[in-house]
Design a protein that fits this description.
The chain is mainly α and 302 residues long. The protein contains 16 helices and 2 strands.
Length: 302
Amino acid sequence: MLVILPAALTLAGCSAKEAGPSGAVGDVTASVSVTAGPTPPSQAAPFPEAPLVDRKCGWQKTVGIVAHAGTPKIVAATLSGDVDGIRRQLAAGAGPDAFDRHLATTALSAAAQARCEAIVRLLLDAGADPEMIAPRGWSPLLAAVNTGDVTVVRMLLDSGADPSRDGGQSVETPLHEAVGVGRMEILRLLIPYAKNIDSGRNPANNPLVSNDIGAGSALEFAATLEGREQHISLLLAAGATASLTALYRAVDLGSTELVTMLLDAGAPLSTSPKEKRTMVEVARAGGHAGVVQILEERSRSR
């Protein structure tokens, strides 16, 4: 699953949108080091239609990352929950897609991860790309799924974010993340927006993810986890493929419910060319007598 962003990274490469030397897109960088925190009301112009600070933001408390001297001002304002500061930056011509290479985050991803609903809305209304990812960062939707903020997830989906698209450095799609952290409500939200329900993770982006586990679809990933039968049922109902890989993983897991579910959905009962053992041999080796019985009965009936 997602891991906390490191406070300092030496990053290379560039995102889909070209950035200037500072990592900002149409923005200027902060000239001094910024300590994130609420903007005192006495220092900010009043905007009665929104709070001066988005009190729901949890970035400082949960992540502990602060802006630095090179942080684009709009990103710095996002890190501190400064709604008015963002408005001023946008009014001055700052681009809503600014990002910080050092912190590996766009303003929108930072707001999504910190559950800053007011700021997410403000940035999207200003034209922020809901799928833009900073170099070695996360997509806004992946961050929102990880934190479990349903409101932010809805905002991003309604703005065009695709939950079946690679979510960034973690190599997971938002669908994988919803399955991995067990968020059924969010998975239900994501599925209708997924352009490719069988989209696989890309282990080539991260050598720590094995080809066997990392390259699978969200359903194949779910088949490796305990207690994901309901998640898999949702994915199957949405048209996800009951693949041979998923069935092998369910057999190895020893879930009779999941094995039955996949077989009923048309999973092939054959031997994978990648495996040295048949599914029955895998089940026997794991001591899964119930799974062995199901496989043998199904083999005789086919």
